[in-house]
């Protein structure tokens, strides 16, 4: 049977709908338009699938970790304070994922624009807070391993103060992300996240922001973690110092290695691509292969950054002996209490 030709009205409707959707997409640079790379439909299913995969396990793991770290660990040294703050940063991003999932499935934002920008802001707040807290965990474990006498005199309030400074600095530094992306879509309230606009910047301001973001948010932390990993590895070859044995060194080495692994897997791809992505948006890079590869890799790099919400709880459980001990003790006590309640109930029946 011959297929029916689409009517003129339906064709006009589809064309109009497609044009409106493309207008709601990221404000495109001339490099994107010239290379025909203005529309990336795969990113919606990629984001939705990634966030669905992260949400439930990440919510349960980080909630349990935060509960155990805060309630069952009285000895808050060995970077436990930094782990608590890292878990809070992950939960802040995880709690915004249902709204992200809704948008990427329906491609429609029915809520207030302020809520969209808040969720967008929490993504980058989580990324850079995680970077700095991972750096602090790695640095502290390394220093305390090499200088155990300093670890004995270290006060909990020092970690609290450092954490407060990190939240203030990171919270302020991440404000430009939603501000720069809240442009070009003033009349399009149905768009959010990947479809937010992009504000063109002055060249001097652009270079300054990129250099600061890359140095402070990536280069300095990655050098610090690499040095801590190397120092901790070398320390295993030296004779044991007072108040610590070889097992303590191995624990510290596993902790530092895990911090490095999370950093490399989650944050390195984004920051390498970030430089090229910014230059594409500003039409500094015009080579079509580079433009297309940069824009196509950008959603994957953001998804990898969100995976830290799943990898960080592994850091708590497998690398912190206090966490494992308290979790096993609490789990065994719950099991014993349940068995005792069942036995008492059965004895009353009999």
From TrEMBL:
Membrane topology classification: Multi-pass membrane protein
Q: Which Pfam families match?
A: 7tm_1
Under the heading InterPro entries, the entry gives: GPCR_Rhodpsn, GPCR_Rhodpsn_7TM
Tell me yes or no: is tRNA-binding among this UniProt entry's keywords. Answer: no
**Highest taxon listed in the record's lineage:** Eukaryota
Q: Which GO terms describe its biological process?
A: phospholipase C-activating G protein-coupled receptor signaling pathway; positive regulation of Rho protein signal transduction
**For this UniProt entry, which segments traverse the membrane?**
48-70, 82-105, 125-146, 158-179, 203-231, 252-276, 296-319
Keywords associated with the record = Cell membrane, Disulfide bond, G-protein coupled receptor, Glycoprotein, Membrane, Receptor, Transducer, Transmembrane, Transmembrane helix
Tell me the GO molecular function terms: G protein-coupled receptor activity
Question: SUPFAM superfamilies recorded for this chain?
Answer: Family A G protein-coupled receptor-like (SSF81321)
State where it is primarily located: membrane
Cellular compartment(s) = Cell membrane
Q: Does the keyword field hold Disulfide bond? A: yes
Function of the molecule:
Putative receptor for purines coupled to G-proteins.
Q: Protein name, please? A: Putative P2Y purinoceptor 10
Q: Which organism is it from?
A: Mus caroli
Q: Which gene encodes it?
A: LOC110287469
């Amino acid at each position: 049977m011959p297929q029916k030709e689409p009517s003129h009205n339906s064709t006009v409707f589809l064309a109009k709908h497609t044009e409106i959707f493309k207008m709601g997409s990221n404000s495109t640079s001339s490099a994107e338009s010239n290379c025909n790379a203005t529309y990336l439909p795969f990113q919606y299913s990629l984001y939705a699938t990634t966030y669905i995969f992260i949400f439930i396990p990440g919510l349960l793991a980080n909630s349990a970790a935060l509960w155990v770290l805060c309630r069952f660990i009285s000895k808050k040294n060995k970077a436990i304070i930094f782990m608590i703050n890292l878990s809070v940063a992950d939960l802040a991003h995880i709690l915004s994922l249902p709204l992200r999932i809704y948008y990427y499935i329906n491609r429609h934002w029915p809520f207030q624009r302020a809520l969209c920008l808040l969720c967008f802001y929490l993504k980058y707040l989580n990324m850079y807070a995680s970077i700095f807290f991972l750096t602090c965990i790695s640095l502290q474990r390394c220093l305390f391993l090499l200088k155990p006498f300093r670890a004995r005199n270290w006060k909990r309030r020092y970690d609290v103060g450092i954490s407060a400074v990190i939240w203030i600095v990171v919270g302020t530094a991440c404000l430009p992300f939603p501000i720069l992306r809240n442009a070009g879509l003033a009349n399009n309230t149905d768009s959010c996240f990947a479809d937010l606009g992009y504000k063109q910047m002055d060249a001097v301001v652009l270079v300054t922001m990129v250099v600061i973001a890359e140095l402070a948010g990536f280069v300095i932390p990655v050098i610090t973690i690499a040095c801590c990993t190397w120092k901790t590895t070398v320390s295993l070859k030296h004779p044991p110092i007072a108040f610590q044995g070889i097992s303590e060194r191995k624990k510290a080495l596993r902790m530092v290695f895990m911090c490095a692994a999370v950093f490399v897997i989650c944050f390195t791809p984004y920051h390498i691509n970030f430089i090229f992505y910014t230059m594409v948006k500003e039409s500094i890079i015009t080579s079509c292969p580079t433009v297309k590869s940069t824009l196509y890799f950008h959603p994957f790099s953001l998804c990898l950054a969100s995976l830290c919400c799943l990898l960080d709880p592994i850091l708590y459980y497998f690398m912190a002996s206090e966490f494992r001990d308290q979790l096993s003790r609490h789990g065994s006590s719950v099991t014993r209490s349940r068995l005792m309640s069942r036995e008492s109930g059965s004895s009353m029946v009999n």
